[in-house]
Amino acid sequence: xxxxxxTLSLLALLLGLGLGYxxxxxxxxxxxxxxxxxxxxxxxxxxxxxFPGCRPxxxxxxxxxxxxxxxxxxxxxxxxxLAELLGxxxxxxxQVHGETQPKRVAxxxxxxxxxxxxxxxxxxxxxxxxxxxxxTTVIAEECTGCDxxxxxxxxxxxxxxxxxxxxxxxxxxxxxxxxx
Amino acid sequence: MLKFKYNGGLKLENPYPVDEIDxxxxxxxxxxxxxxxxxxxxxxxxxxxxxxxxxTGQIVATIDDQRCAPVHASISGTVVAIDxxxxxxxxxxxxxxxxxxxxxxxxxVDTSIGCxxxxxxxxxxxxxxxxxxxxxxxxxxxxxxxxxxxxxxxGCHTLLVNATECEPGITCDAAxxxxxxxxxxxxxxxxxxxxxAERAIIAIExxxxxxxxxxxxxxxxxxxxxxxxxxxxxxxAEKLLLKSLLGIEVPTGKFASDVGVLCQNVATVVAMFxxxxxxxxxxxxxxxxxxxxxxxxxxFQVRLxxxxxxLLSFVDIVEGSHKISMNGLMMGIELDSTNYSVSKNTNCVxxxxxxxxxxxxxxxRCGLCxxxxxxxxxxxxxxxxxxxxxxxxxxxxxxxxCIECNCCSYVCPSYIPLVDYYxxxxxxxxxxxxxxxxxxxxxxxxxxxxxxxxRNKRERAEMMEAKKIALKEKMARDKALKATVEAALKRVExxxxxxxxxxxx
Amino acid sequence: xxxxLLNTSQIMRQVSYALALGVAAQVYFFGSSxxxxxxxxxxxxxxxxxxxxxxxxxxxxxxxxxxxxxLTAILLAxxxxxxxxxxxxxxxxxxxxxxxKQIFGGLGNNPFNPAxxxxxxxxxxxxxxxxxxPADYISMGQAADVIFGLSNIDGLTGATSLDHVKTQxxxxxxIQELELNSIxxxxxxxxxxxxxxxxxxRRIILxxxxxxxxxxxxxxxxxxxxxxxxxxxxxxxxxxxxxTMLAAFFIATDPVTASTTxxxxxxxxxxxxxxxxxxRVFGGYPDAVAFAVLLLNITVPLIDFYTQPxxxxx
Lengths: 180, 505, 314
Fold this sequence. Notes:
The complex is a heterotrimer. By secondary structure, chain A is of the alpha+beta class. Chain A has helices spanning about 1-25, 30-40, 55-60, 75-85, 120; strands at about 105-110, 130, 135-140, 160. Among the domains of chain A are: about 30-95, 3-methyladenine DNA Glycosylase II, Chain A, domain 3; about 105-160, Alpha-Beta Plaits. Chain A contains five helices and four strands. Chain A is elongated. By secondary structure, chain B is α/β, with parallel strands linked by helices. In chain B, strand 15 (about 320-325) and strand 16 (about 335) form a beta hairpin. By secondary structure, chain C is an all-alpha fold. Chain C has two domains: about 30-160, no CATH class; about 160-305, no CATH class. A two-stranded antiparallel sheet of chain C has the order 1-2. Chains in contact: A-B, B-C. At the B-C interface, helix 6 and helix 9 of B face helix 1 of C.
């Protein structure tokens, strides 16, 4: 019995020392969790989660202050992906923060635009091109559809237009192929 | 006998055999519908307007992208509509089309302009441009602009003419070769001249004996050889053809032009002859009409844009429920009606008796699909990964190399529509890549904006600080100056009063 | 390559038909008790599968119609001693269908061969009932009595040839002195061999697994025989005794649980063959097919991963 006790104690000591060394030697700098969460978030920068951008929301999730289901543009898939990353139960998307909508881009009605530049200042990803007293337009590829430009436009000349599938971007629906 | 071979492929019988293959010329259609969206590039912009009269061979839509070809009117008449129609595409999406109503005269544009009949004296660039301006694209089914392909293959050593027509049931290329063997040979000579290849090989399957005989009869050029290949499905796929004829395996992601071979479908070659030597743009093509509900399968030379209904009026169709498909049983698509029109890469229309759809069962991992894949993929694994949307793993198993030939789903004992799954995961992959790029870009722009706002704030604060200090210094200088002035004034006062008291005494 | 196309249900049925000859040999030598087992097995299998399909919310009719559960049931029924009590086969088939198939999601999703899983479960849980084999021909009436517990099994049982050899060897009697020939085993195996060749000719199974499995058996048993012919039986013995032919053509060839690449199948079959001999000779059980197959089932994803064919153009 003495053999058993001493063997196990020795093992425990050695393994403990090994783990301690590894914890110090291979410590990861910074907090990669925030980056991992940020990589899952859709980068719409819309603020619907009640945070001023995706990175602040990622930081808040990492610190455990908020729930993971506050991002409508990420949809239910986003919530599920976050749940899997953090190893927690998934939650249904919190409807208080908004509904998931199909991807949209902003379009400026050029005849109405007065060149006030308020939209340029409001856009979180600088997707507007324009200047004071000069007509403004949207860079469609960069627009994330966050809606932040809509309330600031004094002449209400911005519309959110849904992106329709084209021949190149069409994704077929395979749920019909699936069998019981 | 082939020196080389590739794994996989299927030996399929022609489901609609005919005793004699013939190319039938039919009268002009009443109306043509020409689609604006072609294989690559954005859609062409119509340069005619509704109500305008156009001539046969007139360009009705152009495209800025120099890689792409314009669209021509295939009959003379009046443009009656420029509107959206459903395209014969798996997505069922709509696209812009130009509809022309025939005036019955088939009046051509002046074909003497821009002639390149003596092509030996023209520069390659002139001929490339001629091919482009004549609207020629690959007519074997892919529809890639021919002038771009030929230009990319400049300096190739072999010209491979794909006359295999391996898709079972389609005989339009055979009909074309039997009807115009001289055009085929002379078209090859034109191509040989442009691409400066040393030799040309016509690859043809052994079930087309009449076409082989016709070509042999009219071929006097010693640089052109006719290679007869055993009939096997997927032998006509460009990369597989290169492997079995020349033993060259084109590396993934590369093309035939990268290994010095230019491959063209035989119908494209004929169209090129028509364009370069006879100055006629691409306005018609040979189409096979066949099917289990069609009494006799036939090949028609039909103007582009003619509707399927018009084509079908020339065959006898058995009554009943029909399955309508275009471009073949293996690589074609099923359509919901005959309300579509012939486009540059429509090679057949099949009308079959509607059969009870086979019940789809579970995959039993029998591995039959693995044995028939001509590109040596593992369709079974691709299926399991596509089904669970594990796109990364599917890409790892070379999903992007799949040529969508449908050999795998043909042999599947559970009748699983495998290629549908692969098309799904390929488009999902494209979508994911695009989304990733966009989110990356959005993240970078957001971070830069934050940085810029911070920097603006900081610069503004520094500027205010600097102004404050400058102001303080100025005030101090002013004060000092004031003090000096005051002191001076005081001295003057003092001097004055001292002087004044002296006067008094 | 021309392929005569059969669909999944047809494949399952053809495999069931191909078993007929081997089963006929079993009936000839040992009576129709095996038919009673097959009957019980099929009923149990169909009921259990229907029940679990309902629980899973799947459609019952198409899944039952594909014939896979009947095949599993028949395979298990002919693998166990034909005079085992009725509850043995019922338990075995239920276990096979539930834990070998349904909990994974039904046909096509299971990693382990269901029949072999059921067999292993029975062997470990009820070693006594699973080792009492009939010694001679037993009439239908007598068999029914024994199976349904109405009469005693004593006097009807005897050791199989594999059992016999094993116990004698442990007693130190060299092979040469043993009576090795078992006519019944020989003909039963020949029956399954013929059925297997039929499946090969109809391209329902591919040559890789049967050929490699039998090669594995031959290689391993010959190697041992060359080391000490007193201690180890020859390869012919291993080929015609026990469930070797059944394994080669019907059990290891189950497409769902076998390796899927051609070269992978060769490795899979070969290793099963080798393991069968090793477990028979050095292991605690007289016949080893079930364990060999189950062990190799675990390695299938690994084998598949390392035997991917070279892709065109890479």
